[in-house]
Design a protein that fits this description.
Blueprint: E1 7-9, E2 15-17, E3 21-22, H1 30-41, E4 46-48, H2 56-70, E5 78-83, H3 90-104, E6 109-114, H4 122-134, E7 138-144, H5 148-157, E8 164-168, H6 176-185, E9 188-192, H7 204-213, H8 217-227, E10 231-232, H9 239-245, H10 255-262
Length: about 280
């Protein structure tokens, strides 16, 4: 993990950047396009969106413009999207994928995820992802918000093991058992809401650790993610924050720092519970 272009190798051999930009709740418009272009300009090589975010067209525009401005090709960028719950099922997932691809203006996706484990549907959805993967339309496939029991259930019938599980992960929700299970299975864990939607940015203990390193709390948390071997995709629309979030490759947290941050866990979610959601 030397820089923003550093990658982890997924179990199918595909390389995925450790660090990327998330665009959750960023509406279509100039602000979105500017944020994604700024990320690419400043060295980000991974962009994470989803059908339900309603911003795939703007992300696609920004990717095209950002790559052109930076003199990069499509292959230099790792693009993720996700199938929404209402579209789950075999045929409907295939259709949803084509819609996402069309909106993004891309020929393929680097990663496509099942957004939530919709009971009675996610196995058929996974079958569709496997078909798209085998057809070469997606370089890697995975899931999001899957608990251990969801993964165990999926693995019973899956031909292809998920390459990624993207979950809520931050110092108040360290998901130790889930991370251990994913490691054993060769499934890469990825963090959404790594900064707990900003709720940790004035935490006194984190402030103390940040001060010792001459870094911000956000930088300390994002570094903690990486040192735990978790891919992370903080969201920001402000260019200075996009730059600041990524300035985490010039310091290292000590073993004691890591333990202190781990100890902040309260199994506290800011997002929905994957075992109890109704959307």
């Amino acid at each position: 993990m030397q820089n923003l272009q550093s990658t982890t190798t997924l179990h199918n051999g595909v390389k995925m950047p450790w660090f990327g930009l998330g665009v959750f709740k960023v509406e279509e418009g100039p602000e979105l396009v500017h944020a994604v272009k700024a990320a690419i300009k400043h060295g980000y090589r991974s962009i994470d969106t989803a059908a339900i975010y309603g911003n795939e067209e703007g992300v696609g525009q920004a990717i095209r413009e950002g790559l052109a401005d930076a003199g990069l090709s499509r292959e230099d960028l790792f693009v993720t999207s996700k199938v929404w719950n209402a579209d789950q099922g075999y045929e409907t997932t295939l259709t949803a994928f084509e819609t996402s691809l069309e909106k993004l203006g891309l020929d393929y996706l680097d990663l496509y995820l099942i957004h939530w484990p919709v009971e009675g549907k996610y196995k058929e959805t996974w079958r569709a992802l496997e078909a798209l993967y085998k057809a070469g339309r997606i370089r890697a496939i995975g899931v999001s918000n899957f608990q251990i029991h969801h993964l165990q259930d999926l693995l019973k019938e899956a031909e292809i093991k998920p390459m990624i599980n993207q979950v809520e992960y931050h110092p108040r929700l360290t998901q130790v058992e889930l991370q251990t299970f994913c490691k054993e299975q060769g499934i890469q864990l990825e963090a959404w809401s790594p900064l707990m939607q900003g709720q940790l940015l004035d935490h006194p203990e984190l402030q103390e650790i940040a001060g010792q390193h001459g870094k911000s709390i956000a930088q300390v948390i994002l570094r903690w993610d990486l040192q735990h071997g978790v891919v992370t995709i903080p969201k920001s629309i402000k260019e200075h924050r996009i730059i600041e979030n990524a300035a985490i490759f010039d310091f290292e947290l000590t073993a004691e720092d890591m333990e202190r941050i781990d100890a902040l866990n309260q199994n506290h979610r800011v997002g929905p519970d994957p075992d109890n959601f109704d959307f």
